Amino acid sequence: MSKVITIDPVTRIEGHLRVDCEITGGHISNAWSSGTAFRGLEIILKGIDPRDAWLFTQRICGVCTTVHGLASVRAVENALKIEIPLNAQFIRNLIISAHSVHGHIVHFYHLASLDWVDIPSALNADPSKTARLAARISNWHLNSRQHFKEVQDRFRVFVETGQLGVFAGDGHWGHPEMKLRPEENLLFVAHYLQALDYQRKINMVVAILGGKTPHIQNLAVGGVANPIYLDSQSSLNMERLFKIKSIIDEVGDFVKEVYFVDACAISAFYADWFKYGAGVTNYLSVPELPLDTKGTVFELPGGYIENGDLATFRPIRDPFDEFFIDGVKETVKHSWYKEDKTLHPWEGETDPHYTEFMVDEKYSWSKAPTFHGKPVQVGPLANVLAMYAAGHTATKKYTDSALATISNIVGINVPLNALHSTPGRHVAKAVRCAVMYETLHRQWELLIDNIGKGDRDSFNPPEFPAGEIRGVGFHEAPRGVLSHWPVIDGGKIKNFQIVVPSTFNMAPRNEKGELGPCEASLIGTPVVDSNTPLEALRTIRSFDPCMACAIHVVDLDKK
Ligand code: NFE
Ligand code: MG
């Protein structure tokens, strides 16, 4: 006997998502992912000055604001084939890296961890035992009996006065699939609270360089609007640069001694889960952190892996690489847009056409992107596997260290292949966070060295030719490959398509009826109680879905 359950809305994500699961014999046998909010942001872009596009596209999302700003200016620079000053690249790279570290910490602790951690159970923990447990896996200075006791006491006051606050409505407390002991739960409650502070701290780097966050103000087609005078109080000066350095150092300890360790520990405590959640194992990521003025040499590699086989890794060189440019298409066969076309983003057309939720026809506002005709998974797992396949040193170091830590806790060898799974997405995100933290240091040094050579440039003014030009700007965002595809005519935007990480991952079926990555990953997942489908939510949230980003509309006829 099969039964279909509807989870709507999926909470602790960004935006509006409905997921329907067919459950047969205690396991998910089919799934449908549906973006339920129509967004119209791309319509506004038509006819505007391409130098302003980034200010509009940033408003797509309140979570990953910098990424759309960045992809937009890159896309217009790519269309113009202009170079930008080295200082501008390094300043952008610092923002990208800090924003990624922030995003990964927030996702793991504040959006996803409560699917695995039974918060109220922490009240029954013995803080001394929690401290001993923590000492075995980490050197973090706050892992003391005294600190855990303080957290527990503070938390008890909340519970006893009935004020669970953010923990009130959205937990699955006491669910039979919650497997951690009270001591382990207390450890994660303490780190959950610390993480609130550290995600804020690293975001200060974004705010110092970007003017504010969310929605940075310092981008420009041609560079950044950060004047560099080392002894002026009103520009990027030595004081601010060293403030950034001190924040990076401080947050680095948290990333390595807390987040990285916790992601390994949770995965190890739930090691059974390594067999669930693989789904689509075609992986796409793009290179990131450009080191030259043309934006063609990168610090971090990216590329395509087919069927989970790292031997198939094919690097993507840069945004001029035709393997990337020709590979991206979007289909609307199962999305609420007219007709069933599969189009390249430069030809992209979108004509909203809402029907009811009909799984054999149309059932989502999200389009279904493909890469060379196949559904692909994007995100930190895709990126880490690509960087691993490319032999990237820091990625190899942290991935091997994560697998060794997990194997050590579980007591059996957990291989690289285990990462094709729900916990694999969390482990990979922690690996990527540690890698991004190291790159923060490197980008800071590159910026300081370049300024030290006397280079103060941060902007090259763009000039728009008559006639039509096209560009693509890609970015490896916290949730995966993001690309913006403008068509510009006579200095005005004629068309602007945005293909987003969550559109890839949370896609409905494509033109061939193949399931999107999240849909596919749910198949086979056990659900012990269909009234509280915690297990399905674990896998859905492991993608860090952002539906606000995933859904956009372009209306070519301005209807
Ligand atoms: Ni709104 Fe995003 C990221 C983009 S969507 S969060 O990262 O682009 O997956
Ligand atoms: Mg789009």
CATH superfamily: Cytochrome-c3 Hydrogenase, chain B
Number of separate strands: 17
Mean pLDDT: 94
Number of helices: 16
What do these coordinates show?
With 559 residues, the chain is of the alpha+beta class. It contains 16 helices and 17 strands. It has helices at 41-45, 53-57, 65-80, 86-112, 127-137, 145-160, 182-210, 238-269, 322-325, 380-389, 393-410, 422-452, 501-505, 517-522, 534-542, 547-550, and strands at 2-7, 17-24, 27-35, 219-220, 223-224, 283-284, 288-290, 298-300, 303-306, 309-315, 328-331, 342-343, 368-371, 468-470, 473-477, 480-489, 492-499. Strand 2 (17-24) and strand 3 (27-35) form a beta hairpin. Helix 4 (86-112) runs antiparallel to helix 7 (182-210), helix 5 (127-137) packs across helix 6 (145-160) and helix 8 packs antiparallel against helix 12. The relative contact order is 0.20. The structure holds NI-FE active center (NFE) and magnesium ion. Magnesium ion is lined by residues 497-499, 552.
